[in-house]
Amino acid sequence: MKVYITSAAPASVEVTKTKAPPGPPPPPLQQQVARRGCRSAVVTGFLAGLLLFRAALLAIEAGASLCPSTTGCLDWRAGLGDWLYGDDGRDAMEDFMKEWKRGRTEASLLNPVVVEAAPDSLDGLLTEMDTMLASFDRLDMEAVVLKIMAMLLKMDRKVKSSRIRALFNRHLASLGIPKSMHCLTLRLAEEFAVSSAARSPVPLPEHAPRLTDAAYLHVALVTDNVLAAAVAVASAVRSSADPARLVFHVVTDKKSYVPMHSWFALHPVSPAVVEVKGLHQFDCRDAGVIASVMRTIEEVQRSTLDYHQRDGSVLREYRRLEASKPSTFSLLNYLKIHLPEFFPDLGRVILLDDDVVVRKDLTGLWEQDLGENIIGAVGAHCPGTDGAVVCIEKTFGDHLNFTDPEVSAPSLGLQSSRCAWSWGVSIVDLDAWRRTNVTETYQLWLEKNRESGFRLWKMGSLPPALIAFDGRVQAVEPLWHLPGLGWRMPDADLLRRSAVLHFSGPRKPWLEVAFPELRELWLGHLNGSDSFLQGCGVV
Predict the structure, then answer these.
(1) How many Å apart are CA 483 and CA 504, to the nearest integer?
(2) Helix, strand, or coil here: 48?
(3) What is the C-alpha separation between 77 and 79, in angstroms, rounded?
(4) How confident is the model at residue 60 (pLDDT cuts 50, 70, 90)?
(5) Is 11 helix (H, G, I), strand (E, B) or coil?
(6) Residues in Cβ contact with 470 at an 8 Å cutoff, skipping those fewer than 6 apart
(7) What is the pairing mode between strands 273-278 and 389-390?
(8) In this predicted model, what pLDDT tens digit does every residue of 183-231 receive, in sequence order?
(9) How far is CA 520 from CA 98, 406, 490, in A?
(10) How would residue 171 be classed by pLDDT, with cut points 50, 70 and 90?
(11) How many angstroms separate the CA atoms of 334 and 301, rounded?
């Protein structure tokens, strides 16, 4: 049934007690004015309703809903029908609502051509309605409702498309290496070639005995990011109650070794000591150690190739986007599993990610009692006030696919609700690690995931570590590690009280997409007068 709005016939008006004789028909000009007045009244009525419709669209764009349902905003009818149409206007509003509700069920069946031809704005819709009224004495309500539905679908698709583009652009921005960091790397490599100071030993020979002395506090970073390593080391030294006790071990790849060495040779952190070592410099005389490290390297390389070659084009594009994240296939991230081989003379080490800022003395973390466990980390579990377990980080179910029988097998003993931990800030007992088969278990699960078509977890270095270290992780005080600063702004009080700030997430502090307040906090640990940083525009 079609519903129409028509212009009503003019009512008789009593001027006197006697009925006035019928007059001559109104001239054409008066008819045009009357018709234009009718059109204006109808358009005004729809304008009021569409203002509410526009408010709903704004709510959609904001990612929330102002109304309990799609028609909720248009269901604010109390008094609205009387105001628009007088005492008899309620029926017209009810008719409109019926058509609107019926049109909702038909909206998904609209021809894409109709949706694409829908107006782009409220003004465009009103113009089309005015054109319809100018051509006819009545307005087809069904056609109007379908046109509004098409307009809604079109605008909704535009909003979704804009959001996807924004997320994609932010993703790309989080992957890029700023020109200033490229410049810094090249400048440091050039300085290494022309300056003997940049080639001086790191550490100096007189400090070499500290590298294996258990009386010192040993901190390891596995990274190829010179600027991030500089901030992590500088912030730890600045926050230490006894910086002379700190010994930093920076492990990097062959490509980044020269600029990394050059930076710490030219920027010593005395009285602390820094060792810079490339993967190519480790003197592994044990054939078993060499074979184990090569097994991990080769498995990561196989996974890299297979990850892009499986499944259909859509999934392949998604995986290509995921794999473009620097951490996904970073070999250094996977080689953390070989810390006992890298530091055979050390019994304990604090492991830091490079995207951290240390705000408190690390001695308390160093002295944590791990019992028989290998790792002490935040996020493993944290007893709540009511005895319940509170997860500081994600759960195992966020990292592993428990719908796969190999992950959910009772013999494995994993639970999806169990709290996960991360490498960001941890204390590691290397002696306890050497007494287990954790490294071999890690490598085995890397192979299983590749052979399963990456069905067990999304590609990454942490999920197999969660399996390999399960039951060997000791929870430490949550204030030692505040993660997620690359995702969100934290509570100010929590930011002030946390010992180590971790910029996990896409908004790294060296990128322009970082949160400005957090970026300034990170930049505060760099020397603004340094010629290398100034020359490359880092500060």
Answers:
(1) 6
(2) helix
(3) 6
(4) very low
(5) coil
(6) 413, 414
(7) unpaired
(8) 999 999 999 999 999 999 999 999 999 999 999 999 999 999 999 999 9
(9) 56, 45, 15
(10) low
(11) 11
Whether the full predicted model's pTM is greater than 0.85, yes or no, is no
What b/e string do you get for 395-412 counting C-beta neighbours within 10 Å, with b at 16 or more?
bbbebbbeeeeebeeeee
Helices (H) then strands (E): counts for the chain = 22, 13
Sign of CA dihedral 119, 121, 123, 125: positive
**How many residues are there in the chain?**
539
Integer CA distances (angstroms), 74 to 79, 85, 113, in order: 13, 16, 26
Tokens coding 369: 């009692």
- The first and second tokens of residue 70, run together, are 């799609």
DSSP 470-499: TT-EEE--GGG-B--TTT-PPPHHHHHH-S
Q: Which residue has the higher pLDDT, 496 or 98?
A: 496
Grade residue 328 by pLDDT with cuts at 50, 70 and 90.
confident
Task: State how far the Cα of 519 lies from the Cα of 489, in Å rounded to an integer.
Answer: 11
Residue pair 340/433 in contact (Cβ under 8 Å)? The answer is yes
The alpha helices in 86-225, defined as continuous H runs, are 89-107, 112-116, 122-135, 141-175, 179-194
- Helix segments in 226-371, DSSP class H: 226-239, 254-266, 287-309, 313-323, 331-334, 339-342, 363-366
3-state secondary structure of 393: coil
